[in-house]
Queue: 2 jobs
Job 1
Amino acid sequence: MAVNNTERRAQERTGRNAGASGLEHDRWPTSLTAIEPNKIQVRGYSLDEMMGRLGFAEAVYLLLMGELPTPTIGRMLNAVLISSIDHGVTPPSTLAARNVATSGAPLKDCVAAGILAFGPHHGGDIESCMRFLDRGLTLVRAGTSMKAAAETIVRECADQHEAPPGFGHRYHIRDPRAARLFQMALELEVEGEHVRLIRAAERALETTYKDRFDRPMPVNVDGAIAAISADLGFEYELGNAIFLISRLPGLIAHAHEERTRMPPMRQIDPKDHDYDGARNRRLPEGRK
Amino acid sequence: MAVNNTERRAQERTGRNAGASGLEHDRWPTSLTAIEPNKIQVRGYSLDEMMGRLGFAEAVYLLLMGELPTPTIGRMLNAVLISSIDHGVTPPSTLAARNVATSGAPLKDCVAAGILAFGPHHGGDIESCMRFLDRGLTLVRAGTSMKAAAETIVRECADQHEAPPGFGHRYHIRDPRAARLFQMALELEVEGEHVRLIRAAERALETTYKDRFDRPMPVNVDGAIAAISADLGFEYELGNAIFLISRLPGLIAHAHEERTRMPPMRQIDPKDHDYDGARNRRLPEGRK
Amino acid sequence: MAVNNTERRAQERTGRNAGASGLEHDRWPTSLTAIEPNKIQVRGYSLDEMMGRLGFAEAVYLLLMGELPTPTIGRMLNAVLISSIDHGVTPPSTLAARNVATSGAPLKDCVAAGILAFGPHHGGDIESCMRFLDRGLTLVRAGTSMKAAAETIVRECADQHEAPPGFGHRYHIRDPRAARLFQMALELEVEGEHVRLIRAAERALETTYKDRFDRPMPVNVDGAIAAISADLGFEYELGNAIFLISRLPGLIAHAHEERTRMPPMRQIDPKDHDYDGARNRRLPEGRK
Amino acid sequence: MAVNNTERRAQERTGRNAGASGLEHDRWPTSLTAIEPNKIQVRGYSLDEMMGRLGFAEAVYLLLMGELPTPTIGRMLNAVLISSIDHGVTPPSTLAARNVATSGAPLKDCVAAGILAFGPHHGGDIESCMRFLDRGLTLVRAGTSMKAAAETIVRECADQHEAPPGFGHRYHIRDPRAARLFQMALELEVEGEHVRLIRAAERALETTYKDRFDRPMPVNVDGAIAAISADLGFEYELGNAIFLISRLPGLIAHAHEERTRMPPMRQIDPKDHDYDGARNRRLPEGRK
C-alpha cells in the first residue's frame, strides 16, 4: 500500500463521514503501557516496582521486546548501549546537532536534528548489516556451510564494489568496540549464528577478498551491534533503535558543550578541533 | 548577545575573509571524547573498558557530568531514567511520533518529531521546577526556614493562579513514580535540599494552599526528577535531558507499534484506545 | 556506497590525518548563491534586482532549476504551489504539527515535526507517481502506444492490489485541484507527455480496470503535481520538494491556530472538529 | 499556565474518564480550510478558483491573515519572501541541512533539521526586532517623538552591549536586501511607523551611538523584514514564519545539491568552499 494517497485515507476518517461510517466508535489497541489512576504498568510490570530493581537497559529491553531480559542479556545490552555512546565531534549527527546549537535553539532541537542525521550511511548501517547477515543465514539453512555462506555474501558486495555493511573503519584498523562486544558475547554465552557468520565474513575479507578493497575491512561497531542485536532477537528496525538510544547521550553532551562553552553563531569546522579533557584514567579496580 | 544576527556572524568566518582574518588557523576545544586510531576515550576512560564494567546509566552520568557516579548514584539514576520510560499513548510527544509513523516515515523521523513535543508544558517542566526550587533555596541561604521558603514560592505561583512546576496530576492523585523516587532517595541517602524543599512545598500545598487550587497538588514525576537531578548536581538544561533520555525508548516503542501493528494513514484518536497487553506481572523475587 | 560506514568516512577527514592526507586544503563547490560584501547573486542574478521583478514562485524555480522560468511556467508553478497549500486538520503532517504545538513548543518545532510526516504515504506520493509515469514513458519510447503503456502500468499496480500512486481520493470523487491543474496546463500549453500519460492511465482506470478497485480512482492532486512537475523538468526528489514548499504555509497556519486559539496540552481528536471560518467568498472579478 | 504538567492535562482527557467528563462529545474549531467532497475552501475562497488567479505569496497572505492582500501588498510580500530565499552555505541552518544530507537521509529530514536551526540568533531575530520596534512605538504613542523614541531603544541595547535586533552585518556594510525592501515599501506606499522607526534607529546608530559599537550597524534583512511585516500587520510569531517560508527553498536547494553533487559522509567545512555557478546575469528588460 506504499503508494496510496494520504489525504484520501485521512478524509475517509473525518468528522461527518466518519460518523456516518461508524468509525467514531472504533477503538484501537496498544500493548505497551497501561495507565490507571495511581497505577502504571509497563508490559504488565508495575513501573514503581521496576524502579530500583531493574537497570535502565533492562527496562529498555522489557519495553521494546515485551519480556524481561535475563541478567546475562541485561549485561550484554548495557555493553551494546555503551559501545556507541559517543564518537567525538565528527559524525554528521553530532555536527548537525552542534550547528543547531550554535543558533541558540533549545537542547531538544539540537538532539532532534542530530537524530535526523542517522541516515542510511550512519546508524542505518545496523539494519543493513542485519539484512546482509540474514541473506547468509538463509543459505546456511539451505545447507551451505557458514564459511561458504560468508564468502557468498561478501563476494556479492565486492562485485558491486561496495563495502559490506558493518565492515571497515579507515580510522580504526581494529575497532576496539567491536572486539570488546564479541569478547563479551563469547564470555556471556549469548553468541549466536549472526555473530558466528559476521566473524566468518571478517575472515573472508582478510583472506580471499583482501585485494578487493583498498583498505582493511574489520567488523566495525555497527556490524558488531547488528550481529549481537540479531542474535538477541531484535527486529531490523529496532537494531537501528539500539544505536539511537546509545548515541542520544552523545548528542546531548555535544549540544550542551556547544551551547555552554562556545560563542553563538560560530562556523563549525569539523577538522580544527582539539581534545582538552581528561586522559588515560582507569576504572577503579572494584568496579563491577 | 541573544539578539545578534546570524548571517553577519556567519559571514565573518567564511572563505576568503576567514583566511584574511586568520580564522582558518583557529582551533576549537572539546572535552568529551578523544578519538585516536583503535583508541576511544570518553572523559578519559577507555570506552572498551567501560563496556561490561559500567551500566548504561552510569556511562550517561560520566559523559554528561565528567566523572564516574558512585554506585549509589548509579542506582538512583537508573531509577530516575526508568521512572519516565513511558506513559501510554496520550502524551503529545507520543501522539506526534505516532502521527509521523502513520505516514510511513522511518522510525528516526517519528522519534525526532516526538522529541520536538517536549515543550515547556511537557518535559520542559523539569527545568522550570529546578528553577522554582532554587528560588526557594536562595531564601533558605538568606536565613529563611525551609518551611517558610516553601510557603513563599508556592504562594508566588498561587497568586499567579499557576500550578507550581512539578506539582499536580489530575489522573494520578498520588504519582507512584514520584513516591518511589523519594523513597529511594531516602534509602540511598542521596536526598538533598532540593528534595527536602519540594516535600515542604508539597506539604504547604496540602495545608495552607489547599483551597487555592481546584484539585490535589501532589509532587508529580517531573517534580521528583527535578528535585533529585538538582540534588545530584545536574544543570537545569541537563534536567530536561534526563527526561529526554528516559522517554526515548517510549517514543521508539510507540512508533514501532504504530508502524508494525496499525494500518498506515489512519486518523489517530487519543481517546479511543484500549490496552491489550500483559497485566499484573511480578518481577522474579531474586531480581536485584 | 549506500552501505558504507559513517564514522570511518568521517574520521578519514578529521584533524591530524586529514592534514596528513592533504584534505585540509580541499575546497568544495556550490553553484547556488554567491556572497560578496554588499552583493548577493542567486544563480547569477542579483538578489535585490529579483525583488520586485519576480514573483516568489519564479524565484523558487530559478533557485531549484538554475534558470528563470518563462512567465507561462511561472503562472503554472504558482497554481501548483497553491494547489496543496492546505487541506484542513486531518493530514498526519498537520496533526503532528498540532500535537507539537499543544506542548507549547515554538512554531518552527511544530513545522519541522509536520515536515517529518511527509512520508511515503503523504507527499512522498509525488516522487512515486513520477517514477510510475516514467516506467510508462519508457514503454512509449520503445514504440508502445500511450494508451497501451498506460494500461500496462495500471495493470502492474492492479495485479499487486495497490492503488497507482497519484490516483484515488475516497473523499473527493473528482479532485477539484487536479482538474484545475490539468485545465491550466492545457490552456498554458505546458501539458507534456507525463500529463498525457496520466490522463490515459485515468481513462484506463475508469474503463478496463474499473472493477479492480473498490472505489473510483481519479487522478488526485499528488498525481497532477507529479505529472506537471515532471513535464516542467523537475527531478523526482524536487517533485516532493514542490509539495513541501506548497504545504509549509498550511503547517504554519495550523500550528499558529493551535498555539493561539486552543488550550495547551489538549488531546487532539482528528474527528471532533468543526469549521467556523468564512464561507463561500468570491475572488474580486478584476483579480488577475 | 506555562508551568503546568503535561501528562496530568493529557490524562484528564483520556479514554474512560474523558467519557465520564463528557469530553468525548466536545468538538473543536478551526477557521482555516473547509473540506467537503469535491470542494475545498481556504478562508472561504474556493481553492481551485484561487489557482491561476492568485500568486503563491498572495495565497500565503490569505491563509495566514484571513483576508486577500491588495495587489500592492502582494507585490511587497513577494519581495519580502524573495529577500531571504538563500544566503549561501554558511548559515547554521544550511550547514545543519547539509550535515543531515551527507548521511544519506531523505530531503525532508535535511529540511526539518535546517528549520530547527532557526534559533533566537537566526530567523528568530525577526520577532525580537518586531518587539524592539514596538517598545519604541509605545513611547511614540505616549507623546515621544519618533527620533527620541529611536534613540531610547537604541540606547537600551547599547547600554547592555548588545546589537539591536535587526541591525549589523559585518560582511555587508550596507545590506542590499534591506535597502531594496525599504525602497519598495516607499514606492508601494506601504511604509508605516515600524519602517519609519527602524530608519530613525539606523540614523541614531550612525550618529549618536556610532562609537558604542565596534562596527557599522546598518539595518540588516531581518530588521527590514521585521519592520515591513509589522507594518503589514503580521503577528510576532508570523514574522518568523515569513522568514521560514522565504528560506525553505534555500534549505531544499542546498540539501539537494549536497545529496546529488557531493560524496556521502563527507566532513563539511563551512570555510573551504568556492562558488562555481553562473555570475553577473541580468533579468530580461521586459520582466515585470
Job 2
Amino acid sequence: MTKKSRFLQTPIEPFVVDAGLRADELLARMERISFQGRNLATAHRIWQKMLQDDVTIFMGMAGALSAGGLRLIVAHLILHRYVDCLVSTGANLYHDLHETRGQRHYVGSPHADDAALAEDRIDRVYDTYASEEEFIANDSWIAEFAATLEKRPYTSREFLHRLGGHLWTTTGRDGILTAAYRASVPIFCPAIADSSIGMGLSQARQQASGAGYIDIIGDIVESANLIIRRPRTASVVLGGGTPKNFINQASVQAEFYSSEVGGHRYALQIVTDVPHFGGASGSSLEEAQSWGKLATDSDKVSVQADATIALPVLASALVTTCAGLLPSRRKPTFSLASRVMTIDDQTVPSDRFEEVNEPAV
Amino acid sequence: MTKKSRFLQTPIEPFVVDAGLRADELLARMERISFQGRNLATAHRIWQKMLQDDVTIFMGMAGALSAGGLRLIVAHLILHRYVDCLVSTGANLYHDLHETRGQRHYVGSPHADDAALAEDRIDRVYDTYASEEEFIANDSWIAEFAATLEKRPYTSREFLHRLGGHLWTTTGRDGILTAAYRASVPIFCPAIADSSIGMGLSQARQQASGAGYIDIIGDIVESANLIIRRPRTASVVLGGGTPKNFINQASVQAEFYSSEVGGHRYALQIVTDVPHFGGASGSSLEEAQSWGKLATDSDKVSVQADATIALPVLASALVTTCAGLLPSRRKPTFSLASRVMTIDDQTVPSDRFEEVNEPAV
Amino acid sequence: MTKKSRFLQTPIEPFVVDAGLRADELLARMERISFQGRNLATAHRIWQKMLQDDVTIFMGMAGALSAGGLRLIVAHLILHRYVDCLVSTGANLYHDLHETRGQRHYVGSPHADDAALAEDRIDRVYDTYASEEEFIANDSWIAEFAATLEKRPYTSREFLHRLGGHLWTTTGRDGILTAAYRASVPIFCPAIADSSIGMGLSQARQQASGAGYIDIIGDIVESANLIIRRPRTASVVLGGGTPKNFINQASVQAEFYSSEVGGHRYALQIVTDVPHFGGASGSSLEEAQSWGKLATDSDKVSVQADATIALPVLASALVTTCAGLLPSRRKPTFSLASRVMTIDDQTVPSDRFEEVNEPAV
Amino acid sequence: MTKKSRFLQTPIEPFVVDAGLRADELLARMERISFQGRNLATAHRIWQKMLQDDVTIFMGMAGALSAGGLRLIVAHLILHRYVDCLVSTGANLYHDLHETRGQRHYVGSPHADDAALAEDRIDRVYDTYASEEEFIANDSWIAEFAATLEKRPYTSREFLHRLGGHLWTTTGRDGILTAAYRASVPIFCPAIADSSIGMGLSQARQQASGAGYIDIIGDIVESANLIIRRPRTASVVLGGGTPKNFINQASVQAEFYSSEVGGHRYALQIVTDVPHFGGASGSSLEEAQSWGKLATDSDKVSVQADATIALPVLASALVTTCAGLLPSRRKPTFSLASRVMTIDDQTVPSDRFEEVNEPAV
C-alpha cells in the first residue's frame, strides 16, 4: 500500500437518504458531498459563523425573488436580524409592496401566449403573472405618498424607511419593507431609478413640483460611513446585480477613509451567473479579493443555484440551527427616522465621509 | 373593481420559513412559489404520481453524481424500487464500483494546482479528488472479472448485472451496482466504451483473447422490447447525456413495433444544460413531445438545478411521502441472470424486436 | 412521396467555408443555419431594418464591455449614429474614461493568485487587470470636475454630457463618453450610484458642499419624454442589467402619457443570462411583449452569446453593409448642453411628463 | 509615477471596427480583448500551431451541429486535413447522412406547438425541424446496408468507414461521412448505440440474424493504439459529450502501454457547459491535466460559446490563414478499408494493445 497523497485527506461521505430529514439535517449530510450541494452546506456553515462573530451583515438581493415567492423569507431574516442591512433592486421592493398592499402575483406558465397576456394587461415574469392595473395603482400610491413628503432630496435609505413605515401603518402586514421598518434595518436601493418605485417617484413630481428627489450619491456616502463606523462586515448576496457591487463598493470606499476597514470577513453568494463572461453578477469571490472587497483570509463560498431552491433550504436550516444564537448576537443598532441615520448612536452622515485614518503606529 | 383575467387564477404563496421543516414540507411550501423552486416541488408531485400509476420508471444518470456523493441515494431508489431500470454513463457506475470496493473519493478544491495533482497522480473532478493508482487497480479488477466470463458478446445490461453480482459477493457493500443486482433492476450503459469500465473491458481482451465483447446494439433491442412488453413508461433524468436520449430512443424504437407504445406518460428531468444551444442534454420536454418520446398529454417538469442540491432534497422528500406507496406499486419483475432477460416472466430478446402491432380496428 | 408538412418550408443551408470571408459574408451564410448562429445573423438583419426605418435606437450596455476591449466599437456606433441614445452601467463609462484618460487595462489570467494581485493593488475582472492606483486617480479627477459644476442636481444625462465634454477637451481621444459628446448622443446611467463614477461624485461632495447631486428620477422623466416626443423606438441590448430594463421602462412610462407609444418596434439583445431563473437580465423578448415594452408585432431576436464574440462580428458586418444607409437615416437630433435637453428642437423636460394623450376618435 | 506591477504587462487593445474585415482579421483584432472573444482568437492561434507541429489532431463533435448547419465545415476540415481523426456522437453522423442522402433539415421555431408538430410527424431540435418519415427511411437504408455486411463484429471505426464509402458511391455528395471516407480519416463513435445509426443497426439484426454487431471495446483498443503508434497528439473539441472524454481516454489508455505518450500537446474546446456542476462536458482543460489527459505544458484554450457562432468564424479564419500550411503538414496516413486499420503503414490492432514501454534509461 502506497503512502497517501497530501491531497487525499477528507473522504467524500455519500448522502444517505432517510425519511423525515429536516432542512438542517439535509445540509449537514451535504457537507461532504461535491459540487453545488457541498457549497450550499458550506453557505449554511458560514452564515452560522457570521452570526457568532461581531460583524455587520449586509444582504444583497437581485432577481425576481419577491415576485417569485421569497419575500417572506427575506422579511423573516430581517425581522429576526439574521442580517443587518439590505441592499436591493427596486423591483424586489416594489413586488414586496405589491403583496403587502394585499395584492398577489399568480402562478403562470413560461410558455404563455404573450400577445394574449398583453391583451389582458397581464405582465409576465417567466412563470409568474401580475395585473398591470394593480401595478399602476401601486405607482399612484407611491406617487401620492412621495408627494406628501417635505420637498428635499432623500437618500434611498431614508425614503424606503419612510415608505416602509407608511406601509406598516396602512396595512400592518408582513413583508420586506415593513420588516425593515419594524426592525430598524436600513435598505439601500442604488438603482431605484430602474424600477417601478422610481416610476412612482417620477409621477410624484408630476403631482407636486419638487417632489421625488432621491440622493443616491448620498447613499454611497452613508453606506461607506456605516462601514467606517463598524469596520467588520459580512456579505450575503442573492443573485448578483447592483446590490452585489454596491455592498462591495461601500467597503472599498470606506477603506479610503479608515485603515481599519479591510474587506468583508465573510461572504456567501447564491448566483446563477458565471464568471467567464466578465460581468460583475457572476464574478467570483476570489476576484473580489483582488479588489480588497473581500479580506484575503475571509471565509467565503459561491453557490451556483437558483435562489428559489437554495434559499428555502438554507433559510429553513438557519432558523433551525441559529435561532438560539440571535439573542447574544453583537448586532448594530440603527435609528433611521431622520435625514441623518445613526449606528450604535453614532451619526452616519450622507453628505461627507467620516475620516478616521490614523498613522500606523 | 375590474373582472379578474382568466390568467390570474392561482396566487403565488410566499414561502414561510419555520424551524424544523422536513424535506417534504420544504417542497410542499415551494409548490406555489416560482421558477426552479416550483419546478422542484412539481418534480416531487410527479414522481408520486408515477409511483401510484402502472408505469415502468426509467432513470437516467449522467454527470459525476457517484463521485460527487449521490450514489447511495440512487442505490436507495433502486433497492426500494422508486425506479425500475437505470440507464447510466459508465463513469457513474465506475465511481460507484470504486467506493463499493472500499475506496474513497476526496474533498478537494476547484482551484487546485493541477500540475501538482498530476505529480501526485491525483485525478480531479471539479472539487473532488481520487487516486489514479486506485483507479488503475479497479481497471485490473474489472479486466480480471471480465476475462473469467464465457467468451461471447454481452449486452451491457447482462454484463453489468454480472458485475454487480460479483461486487456484491466480494464486498457485501451497498452501492448502485450491488443494489441493482440485489433488486433485479436492469442497468443499461450505452456509452460503456466511453468510460473506465470500457477501459477495464479492453484490458480483459489483453488478458484473454475473445474477452470483453459488449453488444450495445443488443441493448437497443432489449430496451425497446422492455417497452413493447410493458408500454406504459415514465422517465426520470438526472443530468442529460446519453442516458436521457437512450431512454427516449427506446420508446421511439418500441413504437415501430407496437401501437400500444405512445411515449412516456411522465417525465421529469433535473438538468443544468439549456435548450438554446440545440444539444440533447438541455433539450426541453416539450421538444421531446414532437418526437413522440413523450406523450403529448404527459405530466412533465424540467428542473434547472445541480443534482447535488436537487436530488438530496427531492429523494428525502420522496422517501418520506412515498415509502407507503411502494408495497402496492404495480412494478415490473425482472430476471437478469441470463443472456435473455425476462420482464414479468416474458422473455425480452436482444436479437430481435418483438412485433406486436395489430391492424387498427 | 408524401405531401410536405406546412412546417417544412425553408431548408437549413449548411455553412460553406471559404477563404477570405468578410464579417458580413459570415453572417449572410449563418442566416439559415440553426441556434445562436442563426440568431446572430438575424440580429444583423434586424439592425439593418432599424436603420432604414424612422425609429430612435436605444442601446443598453452592461457587463465589463469597456474593460474587455469593446469600447471603441460602441464609440464608433455612437459617433456614426448606428444608435441614438446609450443607457449604460457606470462601470462601462468609468472604464471608458480610464482608457480615454490614457491609461490601460491589461491582459491577465482567470487563474491569477488574487492575494498576490491584492498585494500589488491590481484589480481583476475575470482575465483582465487594472491598476487600483490609476483607478483612485480617476476618482479624484471625476471628483474635481464635479466639484467645479454649479451646485444643483444634474440628471445623469446632463452630467455625463458635461463629463464627456470635459474629457474631449482635455484629451481629444476617442471613446464612448467623448463620442457621445461629439455626436450629441445622450447617455443615461440610472445606476450611476453603483459605480466608480458614483464614488467620484461622492468624493466631490467631500471637496465642495452641495456638489455631486444626481437626479436619477429626472432621468426617468427625461427618458420617457424622449419617447413621448418620438414614439417609434428600437432597442439594442448588450448584456441585460439595469440598462435593459431602463430602456423598456421608459417605453412603458411614456405610454401612460401618450397613446402613440406602443412598445419598441425592433429589439435585439445579446445576453448570456437565461430566462428560467426569472431575472430581468435573461428575460425573453416574448415576456417583454406581455408588459407592452415591446410591440407584439415587433421584429426581435435574442442572441445567447458573449458580447466579446458577438459584437465584433456583428458591428464589423454592420459597418460594411450599412454605412451607406446612414446619410439618409431619419435620426433624432439632440441638444444636450443645458439642464433641459431637446430632441428635434422640442424640449424634453426632466421635471414633468409631457402629456399628449388624446381621446380616441 | 510608480513602478508598474509585474502583472501589468500587455495592455488590452480595444477592437477597432472597420468595413470589410475578414474572419481572420476579426480574430487578429480579438487577440488582445478579453473574455471569450480573446479565447476564440487564441483558439485560432493554437490550431495554427497544431498544424505546424508534428501531431495527430483529434476532433470531437457533440451537440446538434450537423442538423444545425455546420456539417460542411466539419467535412471541409476533414477533407483538407485540418484534423486527422473524428470522434462523434451518432446523431451528428446520422444528420449528416440524412442530408448527404439528399434530404434536408428545416428552419423552425423554438416556440413551436409541439403537439402540432407531433401530429405532422415533424421532429424538432430547438429551432430546427426534420421529417420523421425521412428519418425512418434513413434507418431502413442503414439497416439494409448493415445487413449486407459479412456477419461479424465491426468497430464503429470500420463500420463508419464502410458506411461512408457506401454513401459516397451512392450519392457522390459532400458531407462528414463521405469526406472522411475520401480522405481516409477514421471516425469513432463510442456511443453509437445512443443514436439513430444504432437504431438502424438494431433493425439490421431484425433483417438478418447476426447483423449489426459493433465492437465498441475494439474502438477503445484501436484509438489507444493510434496514439501508441504516434504519441504526439492534439485535441479539438466541439461541445463536450462522449467524444471529449473518448479522445482523452485514448491518451490515458495509451500511456499504460507506452512511456512516450504524455497527454495531448495542444487542446482547444468550444463548449457551452460549465465546470462547476462537475460534469465531463464542461470540465476545464486544467482539470484534464491532473489526469494526464493533457500535458501539463500543453497549449490550451477553452471557449465558452455556441459552436454555431464560434465555428463559422474560426474555420473561416483557419482556411484563410492556414491553407498554405497543409501541403507540408506532417500528418498521419491511414488505411481504413479492413478490419485492421493502419497508420503510417503500421497496423493498429483492435484486439490487443501494442506494448512498447521500455525501461527508462
